Amino acid sequence: MSRAPQKPLVAIIGATGTGKSELAVDIASRFNGEIINGDAMQMYHGLPIITNKIPEAERKGIPHHLLGCIGLQEETWTVGRFVDKALGVIDEIRARGKLPILVGGTHYYTQSLLFKDALADYSFNSERKESSDVTAESTGFPILDEPTEVILAKLKEVDPVMADRWHPNDRRKIQHSLELYLQTGIPASQIYDEQRVKRISDGIASSDDSVAGLQMRSPTLLLWVHASKEALHKRLDSRILKMLDQGLLSEVDALAAFRSSHEESTGVQIDHTRGIWVSIGYKEFLAYHTASASGDVPEVELEKLKSRAIKATQSATRQYANRQVRWIRIKLFHALASAGQTSNMFLFDGTDLSCWEGWVLKPAIQVTQQFLRGYTLPPPTELSEAAKEMLAPQRDYDMSLRRDLWVRKTCETCGTVVVTESDWDRHIKSRGHRRAVAAQDKESRKAAIKQDDIKFVQAELLDVLGKHLDIFNSDEDQQK
């Protein structure tokens, strides 16, 4: 006899541009659901084009939570704050007898919400004690606003293990590790160790198994909307052009005007390396905006700047989509595996939009219905060839949880710093590294040849001097 899950949650994941928001609305319409936004940039108020919010007309009256809920001057929410807020919204949705549906592209938000994780829980439990406006200043940790090298230096002092784990330019991870220590007084590395020891003592992990034993907060069905890389990249390139037609440049102008007004009124410079200011589309078009606003740049140069900005935005969007897919295939998949829940993640092939109803919508509705009724779910890998390929694990572990595999190496040729063996292998095989090595070898050969030339000249000089000395000695003997 089937048994419906208690307090179920549906999470819709996937790369940007695959149609997650549209599927979420359709699922919510059919199963009495409400949607929780899990995209960090879409939490900012306004800017529907840059942040790619689903238009009001396409929401079909479905309530959307955590969408446009923070001001442009605010920091992006920490993982802990997002988890805390989202859990509260989920409780409210369930209290109304409705189904919570999480959708968004910030997958570390999603993962922290789905799983009971010591690091996230420490973070959001600490933040509950703070005011509703949690910033570096309000929490009493102004060091978190310092340059990355300052934050890293402090992290090395209080938690050298985690400091050595992150790349020196990875500000977000360095900042998060230090923030966790400042909030709890416990190094993140120690929390990891405590978590692992507890799993071993509970019998859900062995001493050489660093990833087993994660637990989900509630029964969860994951619907992954996927598209082939080639098709998605073309779609994303076209989307950037469509965003321009819809008014992307107006939003860039509005953001720049807000920044100027805010800095003038407060006397505080806005940090362009964080918050809404790192959203794809704003930073790429900023040089064009500045040149256009000046009024003294020739039209030809403006067009070049605009063309360059379009290509940069398209490239950044494609790279972002690639990173989202890697996160799902490696981090999220292994977290699900550790919780024994990979059978609850289903991939739907949205490569061909003309087949959306048959390949995505209908099978997603069917699986959701089976999940909510407690029926046995079909094997996820049998839904399509894309599912069979993409749901196969790329490796047997999540690197972030295998401290025994953490390494730190610096390439003396390139100056590149890496923090895993796989990164090192990729680096030494990369075209850039090979070119640098070839250039270094060429310079070394030139230096060797130059040194040989110097030695040859020195030998010739010595030979000439020797001959002159012999002649001098011979003359001297004759005079005697």
Automatic annotation (TrEMBL):
The record's catalysed reaction(s) read: adenosine(37) in tRNA + dimethylallyl diphosphate = N(6)-dimethylallyladenosine(37) in tRNA + diphosphate
- The organism's superkingdom is given as Eukaryota
Q: Does the keyword Transit peptide apply?
A: no
Q: Which UniProt keywords apply?
A: ATP-binding, Cytoplasm, Nucleotide-binding, Transferase, tRNA processing
Q: What is its EC number?
A: 2.5.1.75
Which class of enzymes does this protein belong to? transferase
GO CC, alphabetical: mitochondrion
Q: Does the keyword Protein biosynthesis apply?
A: no
UniProt cross-references to InterPro entries, sorted A to Z: Dimethylallyltransferase, IPP_transferase_euk, IPT, P-loop_NTPase
Example GO molecular function term?
tRNA dimethylallyltransferase activity
Xref: SUPFAM superfamilies: P-loop containing nucleoside triphosphate hydrolases
Record's Gene3D superfamilies?
1.10.20.140, Classic Zinc Finger, P-loop containing nucleotide triphosphate hydrolases
TM stretches of this protein: none
A Gene Ontology biological process noted in the UniProt record is: tRNA modification
An example Pfam family from this entry, by short name, is IPPT
Q: NCBIfam families from the xrefs?
A: miaA
User: What protein family does this chain belong to?
Assistant: Belongs to the IPP transferase family.
Quote the function comment for this protein.
Catalyzes the transfer of a dimethylallyl group onto the adenine at position 37.
PANTHER family assigned to the protein according to its UniProt record, in alphabetical order = TRNA DIMETHYLALLYLTRANSFERASE
- Recorded protein name is tRNA dimethylallyltransferase
Which lineage ranks, top first, belong to the organism behind this chain?
Answer: Eukaryota, Fungi, Dikarya, Ascomycota, Pezizomycotina
